Amino acid sequence: MAVSEQPPGPGLTGWLSDKLFNNYIWRSIFRSGYPNTPRNQMLVVATNVFLHLHPTRLHKTHVRITHTYCLGGITFFFFLVLTVTGVMLMFYYVPAADRAFQDVAALETNIRFGMLMRNLHRWMAHGMVISVFLHMMRVFYTGSYKPPREFNWLVGVILLTLTLALSFTGYLLPWDQLSIWAVTVGMNMAGTVPVMGEQSRFILLGGFEVGDAALIRFYTLHVIGLPILAAVFMAVHFWRIRRDGGLARPL
Amino acid sequence: MAVDAPAVPRTAAAIRPRRERDQELLVWPDLVFIEFIAATVFLLMFVILSTVLDAPLLNQANLDITPNPSKAAWYLVALQELLLHMHPALGGVIAPTFALGIIGAFPYIDRSNDGQGTWFGTSNAIKITLFAAAFASIFTVALILYDQGRHVNVVTSVAQEFDKDWQWPGKLSMFQNVRAIQTGWEWSIPVPESAQLGPGEHDGELNWPDDLSHVPMPFNGTSGPDWMRWGPPTFLPAWMQAMYWYDLNMNTPAFVVELFIPVAIMVLLPVIMILMLRRLGWVNNMRDGSIAIFTGMMSVYFILTIIGAGFRGAGQDLVLPWDVPHID
Lengths: 251, 328
Prior knowledge:
The complex is a heterodimer.
Chain A: H1 11-21, H2 24-29, H3 38-47, E1 57-59, H4 65-68, H5 71-92, H6 100-109, H7 114-141, H8 150-172, H9 177-190, H10 197-205, H11 212-243
Chain B: E1 24-26, H1 27-30, H2 32-52, H3 77-83, H4 88-109, H5 125-148, H6 150-162, H7 180-183, E2 187-190, E3 205-208, E4 215-216, H8 238-243, E5 249-250, H9 252-279, H10 286-310
Antiparallel strand pairs in B: 2-3, 4-5
Helix pairs in contact in B: 3-4, 3-10, 4-10, 5-9, 5-10
């Protein structure tokens, strides 16, 4: 078990950190102290539920910023923050045609930090679409889709479409002129699918035009259906990076 | 046969690089800290952005009031732009699906392991990227300008300085825009009296576009001799009926304008680009070709997005960015 064997340092800070981090309650949460030896640093990565997605060691090219520009990680981070801000927005939002717009408008006027949450959610959603595109370009131009990572590239393409679908379904929710017409334009495109265009449009909208039924469908897809799907594919995506030997680097 | 034999033999390409411990770093702290800093920086950036810039909220949704222009979300504006120039099914669904399919297929087309993990891994990669980006952008902009047809006004007004009655010649109407091939271009081929296809009288000539705008599809059940005529196949399930072209007549000029020419352009331009790059000696393998195609597709998407979002005003007319109407 990883245990920091360091004795408390001298002076007030040493005494304070000893009291804070070396007591019964803290130790019940974090079994070890700050990992300050290579052995403990590897153990903390291997045993922590959040960190164990990482390997314990990685090649030094992988931490070079210009190799990845952190784009995949930033996309994932955006997804996490979007989940948090999205949950907060859900507290105040009812997906019904006669309420949705007022609920969104009330975020600005009635709810403390409501506008900040909505702005964060909106701008980060755009940010996620951009970062996922840039991530794809990074992976392409560094030839990182090459064997054995072919399938992970495909998973990435699926995640790109899911990101666009998440953003598109969210676009309708404010129920203003921008959202309803953007979705109408988008749905008319779906209506031109050969053979089953009208049917697929009808299924997505739950009717012939963008109304109450479409709003609840888009909302459900946006807050639960697509995020779960995206999370599953992300899990596969990250797992495959590990299984395929980490990030691609020159042979 | 051994039970644990691998289903697929491991090829040389699938072998992982050997671990070199001296080249390795610990994830804690070397990676975890970078991730933490990146997350903090981006969170701060977006909190600041969100305090200074409010997300748009227009008037309440109303299907009775259509804003002009109505635009899709910015990442779909590229497809909306395509709709202006080709059949909606082609521009909105088939072409993008095909493009996504090609993107997904790159690892299966370019299977070599060379240059992996290196930015622009082949010797000509940067040149190819720049060339493909320029080629795709120039042709996209040129095709949009052509289809918009502004040059017709310019040429006409210049020509009318010299000849007041000058009109754009009908024979050259295909140079106005692509739709003019269907609506403005008229020609005819004399047809001998003896040539008789199907019932009805013919006037001795085959006219474009009128005579070709109602060409029965083969076996459409409502044209040809008696034995080729039958009622609608109501005995089939609805989805099969939807797939059968009963009573369908092809509008050939519309087909040429909306499907044939756009598809030809979307296939031929990349082929020409690859041939040019090969002639230049820059494209030597699948990786080079993939870079050219991927860059071309990304550039087209980028240009279409810029034009669709920034240069399309009321009625999807091509205008300057400051003339795009403000929608509330």
